[in-house]
Amino acid sequence: MTINRRQFAWAPLFAGVLLSFEVKAAEAGAEETVAKNLEAFRQAQIARDKAALDRLCAAELSYSHSDGRIEDKATFIKNATDDKSKFVSLEYQDRSIRVVGDAAIVRFHWLGEAEALSDGKRTSTNLHVLMTWLKQGPDWKLLSRASTKLETGRA
Fold first, then answer.
1. C-alpha atoms less than 13 angstroms from C-alpha of 100 in its C-beta half-sphere
2. Per the structure, how many domains does the chain have?
3. Number of C-alpha atoms within 13 angstroms, CB side, residue 129?
4. Which of 122, 137, 131 is CA-nearest to residue 41?
5. How many angstroms separate the CA atoms of 143 and 20, rounded?
6. Is 155 within a domain?
7. Which domain holds residue 47?
């Protein structure tokens, strides 16, 4: 088979188009995996599941609360699983996930209600949350989280 100049000139274009489709497919697969991990993280928060939170968080985790507190992985897991309160409800609404190489930018509206185990007092939280997930080996891990308080009734 002989290849003329025109056919040769089109080869890089076709290769580029094929590569573009492969990258988009990989990003879509990564977004789906991050979405599953995000839901697993939400469920682990509700269940106060130490093992799941440990598995989903990077060793270098920086977890920032809307009141300005910043926790490392060990402190976050300890406080998220203590016997002081439990979630009555926790929703992650209006999620957006954008994969950029080995990182994923995740944003959502957090609506939660927790109950103090000592006296049954309930508190509500209405937040905007930004998370960064990082691909470490074959797994996506939560690297950082920051939140901003929203006014009641505002999304």
1. 6
2. 1
3. 28
4. 131
5. 28
6. no
7. 5-149
Low-confidence ranges of the chain (pLDDT < 50): 18-22, 25
- Which pLDDT tens digit goes with each residue over 57-90? 999 999 999 999 999 999 999 999 999 999 999 9
Angstrom distance (rounded) from CA 8 to CA 15: 11
| pLDDT value at residue 21 | 44
Nearest-angstrom CA–CA distance, 73 and 71: 7
DSSP 3-state of 57 = strand
What is the pLDDT, as a whole number, of residue 29?
86
Q: What is the CATH number of the domain that holds 10?
A: 3.10.450.50
pTM: 0.81
Q: How far apart are CA 118 and CA 99, in angstroms?
A: 41
Indicate the SS3 state at residue 63: strand
Q: Where does the chain have alpha helices with state H?
A: 5-47, 50-56, 73-80
φ, ψ for residue 121, nearest 5 deg? -65, 135
Residue 102 is classified by DSSP as: T
Q: For residues 15 and 53, give the distance between their C-alpha atoms in angstroms, rounded to a whole number.
A: 41
